[in-house]
Amino acid sequence: MTTWTADELERISTADELDIAPQRRDGSLRKPTTIWVVRDGDNLFVRSWRGSDGMWFRTADSSRAGRVSAGGVTRDVTFAEEADPAVNDRIDAAYRSKYGHYSGYVEPMVANTARATTLKLLPC
After folding, report:
1. What is the band of 54 on the pLDDT scale with cuts at 50, 70, 90?
2. In whole angstroms, how far apart are CA 27 and each of 45, 50, 53, 81, 110?
3. CATH, domain range 6-123
4. pLDDT tens for residues 13-23?
5. What is the rounded average pLDDT of the residues 34-41?
6. What are the boundaries of each domain within the chain?
7. What angle do CA 3, 52, 106 make, to 5 degrees?
8. 90-93 contacts: CB < 8 A, separation 24 or more?
């Protein structure tokens, strides 16, 4: 399995936003959607602000593949579910720490509807 390099982790995790383009059933990529990304150790995570109603999330959840770009890094990825409550608690803390200055937007990102859409980005 491929892993993120230290440089990729740093550049992506410190970028304010990430462009995510999940793969459709026909193999083409959706138009990129700009979202937030956080880091926990050597892993990168994303969530859907709209919960499971988010179109990018529904495509990613179905295909489990796509491409991300942030901080000058572009990589094909696999999307993996994260069900460990302890990891989700740390991801909540990461969202609050990184994006807390965006009042009104962080709380929906740590609510149960968004937590249920937590995806780990695994580089291909």
Report:
1. very high
2. 23, 24, 22, 21, 31
3. 2.30.110.10
4. 999 999 999 99
5. 97
6. 6-123
7. 75
8. 90/40, 91/38, 91/40, 91/45, 91/47, 91/115, 91/118
Distance between alpha carbon 29 and the CA centroid of its chain, in Å?
Answer: 16
In whole angstroms, give the CA distance from residue 49 to residue 78. 20
Mean pLDDT of 48-74: 97
Residue 83: which of 114, 123, 116 has the closest Cα? 116
> Residue 71: left if φ>0, alpha if ψ -120 to 50, beta else—which one?
left
Residues 6+ apart with CB under 8 A from 40: 87, 90, 91, 94
pTM passes above 0.85: yes
Q: Where are the beta strands (DSSP E) in 3-103?
A: 18-22, 33-35, 38-40, 43-46, 65-70, 73-81
